[in-house]
Amino acid sequence: MLLGINKKKEVLGMTFKLDLNLENYFWESRCCMGCAMCKYGDWTYVPADHEFSWICPEWQWGKFDNWGACGRTRLINALFVGDLDWSEPLIHEAAFRCFSCGGCDVGCKRNLDLEILLMNQSLKVALVERGFGRPEHKGIINLIQRSGNYYGMDNRLRKDWITSDIKVEEKADVLFFVGCWASFKFPEIAQATARILNKAGVPFMLLENETCCGSFMYETGHLREFRAAVNITMKKIKDSGAKTVVCACGYCYKTLKVEYPKVLEIATKDLGFEVLHISEFADRLVKEGKLSPKEKLEMRVTYHDACSVGRLSEPWIPWEGIRDADDWGKLKPRRQFRRGTHGCYEPPRNLIKAIPGIDFVEMYRHHHNAYHSGEGGGVYEAYPDTAQFAAEMRVKEAGVFGAEAIITPDVHSMFMLRDALQRVETSVKKVYHISEIVDQIYS
Amino acid sequence: MQEFKERPMLTTSEMKEKLRQLRTQPYWWDMPEEAYREMEAVVGPDKISREKVVRQAYVGRGYARELIWFSGQAYPPCCVVQPETTEEVAAIVRICNKYHLPFNPCSSQWAYNANPRFRPDQVQIDLQRMWIIDIDKKNHLAHVGAGVRYGHFCQACFDHDHYFINTGGGSASCVIANHTVWGCSPFNYRMGNPERRVLAVKWVTPEGDIVRTGSWAGRDECTVETGFWGDGLGPNLNGIWRGHIGWFGAMGIVTEMTVKIFPFIENAREAMVPEGVNPDSHLRFNTNRVAWQNIRLPSRKALEDFFYEFSHCQIGAAITKVPVFWRVIAKAQDKEDFWERWSGVTKEDIDNFHMARVLLIGFTNEKQMEYERAVLEELTKEFGGEFTRTKPWDESWFKNADTSGMWMMTNGYSSSEGGQECLRCSFETGKILGTLLWERYTPPFMPEYGDPGWFQVNDFGHSSYLEFLVYMNVSKCDPLSERYDLQYVKRIIEWQFEENPSVDAKTGFFNFFSGSGFPVLVQGPFFSDYQIWIDRFKKEFDPRGLSNPPAPYDPETFLEEIPKHIATKARRIIKTARRG
Predict the structure, then answer these.
(1) Do B335 and A329 touch (CB under 8 A)?
(2) What is the ipTM score, two decimals?
(3) Cβ atoms A39, A59 nearer than 8 A
(4) SS3 B125
């Protein structure tokens, strides 16, 4: 079924749909000409410093081209045409060492508009479907399915983070979707986020029985399991009557805002509720005069654009149609591209820069061009060496600018960067989640 | 409204069968165990691989890949090795010679011949780990390793208040590889041609000797400080490893180089501020010191005269005229938007559109900028032109050249003509090619409405640069597409092998796309005995023929391997040319 085309004159074209079916990306696998922008990212921002010259952490870790998107495109083409076999272990490794951070996609869409990220994600799905998924991932997914959370803990303990000073409503327009990591492992982030809402006088509720959003399933290519998680959580959110869903976890935010509509084949705007990151929501509250910075913070800080909150968080726009082979390969009907342009970049910066005394510096790689923190795509769980390498690189980069602290909008990246601090000699002493800073300074 | 007929892609077995028919060699080839072990001993086990998956990542990359890869003639290397030093490169090359293994050097893999083609037994020497950027600000030099790209290098120059070209090949192009071949950019107007920027090099010959040229000759330690002079004792060896247009890896491997860099404005880093979000990020200028200016001229004659006089005045840092469709690409949001805009363009529009793009730099101070701007205004008035609105920032050439965007319009692109000649010759060649393409080769190529191509001035008017670009429907060129059309492909080859050389012969234009990759085409009264010298040097320095075969004889091999792609007339031309 293709949209928007009337049947009068025959046009011979290849059908194309933005989804997670690898066959849709055959054109991509033929038309990538190997410019390697997927390795370097946006040249406008590239420094001369070799360590920080790349956007693809997987390639920087591995150095051979099978670890980068343009090399992987050749692997995918070889699978299509039968030059490589699906059972090659190094194909599995090339696919699952990828963080799905989308740096390659942004680089490619500066020029060629190929759907590199969706293609790589579809490769993961195709591998899982053929039984080549990573056992480490499967183990965690079993835990999630059994317990409802990433850690396999008793899901009834999910609200244990709530302290006596935090006011949660039974019913409200705003739903705080806490996520597994903040609920169980980093309760201070859940508490800080809740306190921000309380301070601004925003009534909020929690889901009655929140379960994992399914992000880990999506990231690791377990599409069937992800669809099940989507159905469960969507029903809960709809039943709650929430108009706005606020997240402090980058991956919950991206998953609800982008991946849910993707598998539901709808646009983000048609979800029936708005999904906001806490930094977007707090920035809005500041503009409405409900929050303002009250404390000073004399510190040199930098901001890490977690990919989940930055380039990957653009609203999802579904599309299907054809590439008209007789008409220069044009897409029909026309589509709108997601190039990382409209990610959540400025709200957290507005909040940080407004703090009296703060000395804000940007790293080399920021906004759409940010480097990854090492947590995502299931890489940390299956290949911790690559994940730790990426985190160490990011902490080192902050150190080049003399930052004393890194502020991040995501719990996962906060965890990885804090972990890397223990191994890297750097000026950076602290890694904060944006909620912690806003809670501490704003009232 | 159009109807579509759903066309499922070919099955894996159908594609496999098509490729089986196209390929003339087995796809995978196992290298001798002893050779692999010896190479592993040189670089260590982490920097070499013969895994199929690693090898496959080096297939079908870069410019003109459609010609080779689509025709089934791109093969994976038999192993990929990543040396980090010149000595390691030399050792690998010697092992290749010992075992008669052909080798192929690559870094950014921007050109199709940076990866194996026609044979599956090549060792891929991937130089990406050779990262050296050492800048001598006082003497305006830089020592560069083969892993360094223009984007990185340009920023390094800014960091030291200098600047350098960014090539037509894009920011991802390797500085050394590009300097061993074309090395062109609008900045050549002031910086001169690439061969003049190269000072010392470390060159690993096809048999694995290390030759040091310039003031590196005879030195044990080659640093930026010691790489000062472009010539050493004896004959100028640059003519052998580079010549005028390079060997594309057929004459060993240049691993390190010192190049001239050029003083820019003080605090260059602060004057070129990166800002904006994809796809509109750019370098914002301090326009009191750096500015692009677009100038619209009333006629083609006025444009040509303006180019000449501009150079005569010796102002500015660059002057270029780009194809009109580049301007449309820059404005378009995507491919479909490009075509909507381009479909409104007529031949008359192109005939009446004459735009020069000029770069002014106040190298010393704002006064210089004011002076140059005043001269430019006077010149513009003199030729009946006018300044048009120009963005106060740079989206290309200084650091970020989005060359791969050239593929966006049709996903099939080739530069069929390029070279340095006098201004008159470039103008004339561009005009003839533009007309010929529009009148006889549209289709197969995208309508360009007679646009005479991209030209610019080099060396303050001493020479100029012309590049002529053609765009084809990629689906019709791909045997794995159901729209594949052999007649369509033949017309493209005909343009390249018949029409271009005919025009060159008429105008005397030296097409370095032919000269470097297709020496058989560089024949006759204009090109003298170029091909004979190519043959002689190749045999002398690479007697076993191991350095990136079949370069520089790709077209002949192409003709032998897949003759059905070449139209009869083109085949006759190539054969006649080869006989001399």
Answers:
(1) yes
(2) 0.94
(3) yes
(4) strand
Q: For residues B378 and B466, state if they share a domain.
A: yes
Q: Which residue has the tokens 């326009």?
A: B287
Contact list, A70 vs chain B (CB under 8 Å): 57, 61
* Tally of domains within chain B: 4
Dist CA B386 CA B375 (whole Å): 13
pLDDT tens per residue, chain A (443 residues)? 333 333 334 445 667 889 999 999 998 999 998 888 999 999 999 999 889 999 999 999 999 999 999 999 999 999 999 999 999 999 999 999 999 999 999 999 988 899 999 999 999 999 999 999 999 999 999 999 999 999 999 999 999 999 999 999 999 999 999 999 999 999 999 999 999 999 999 999 999 999 999 999 999 999 999 999 999 999 999 999 999 999 999 999 999 999 999 999 999 999 999 999 999 999 999 999 999 999 999 999 999 999 999 999 999 999 999 888 889 999 999 999 999 999 999 999 999 999 999 999 999 999 999 999 999 999 999 999 999 999 999 999 999 999 999 999 999 999 999 999 999 999 999 999 999 999 999 99
Question: Which residue in B126, B178, B343, B141 sits closest to B261, CA to CA?
Answer: B141
| Residue A76 and residue A82 in contact, taking contact as beta carbons nearer than 8 Å | no
Q: B23 to chain A, minimum CA–CA distance in Å? A: 12
Query: SS3 of B547, please?
Result: strand
Distance from CA of B519 to the nearest CA of A (A): 25
User: What CA–CA distances, in Å, run from A237 to A129, A193, A244, A313, B565?
Assistant: 29, 19, 10, 19, 60
B133 and A9: CB-CB below 8 Å?
A: no
Q: Do B278 and A369 touch (CB under 8 A)?
A: yes
Contact between chains at A329 and B12 (C-beta distance less than 8 A): no
Whole-angstrom distance, CA of residue B262 vs CA of residue A39? 28
Q: What residue in B sits closest to A91 (Cα-Cα)?
A: B53
Chain B residues touching residue A84 (CB < 8 angstroms): 52-53, 56
Domain span at residue B544 reads: 512-579
* Residue B337 and residue B429 in one domain: yes
Are B233 and B213 spatial neighbours (Cβ–Cβ below 8 Å)? no
A7 contacts on B by Cβ (under 8 Å): 3-4
- Residue B535 and residue B492 in one domain: no
Neighbours of B300 (CB within 10 A): 17
Nearest Cα residue in chain B from A64: B54
Same domain, B72 and B183: no
B279/A339 Cβ within 8 A: yes
| Statement to judge: residues B323 and B389 lie in one domain | yes
Structure-token pair, residue B530: 């170029």
**Cβ distance of A341 and B279 shorter than 8 Å:** yes
State the pTM of this model.
0.95
Same domain as B144, residue B79 = no
Are residues B371 and B462 located together in one domain of the fold? yes
In a domain, B320, yes or no: yes
Residue at B269 is within a domain = no
Q: What does CATH list as the number for A141-287? A: 3.40.50
A48·B155 Cβ contact <8 A: yes
Residues B223 and B291 in one domain: no
User: A–B: how many Cβ contacts below 8 A?
Assistant: 253
Q: What are the structure tokens assigned to B449, written together? A: 């409405």
Using the beta-carbon criterion (under 8 Å), do B4 and A42 form an inter-chain contact?
no
By CA distance, what is B157's nearest residue in A? A48
Residue type present at position A371 = Y
Contact B195, B244 (CB under 8 A): yes
Residues forming beta bridges with residue B272, ordered by sequence position: B285
CATH number, position B30:
3.30.43.10
Residue of B277, B328, B471 to mutate, testing the A interface (most A Cβ within 10 Å of its Cβ): B277
Q: Where are the domains of chain A?
A: 141-287
CATH number of the domain within which B449 lies: 3.40.462
Instruction: Name every chain A residue with its beta carbon within 8 A of the beta carbon of B2.
Output: 5-6, 8-11, 324, 332
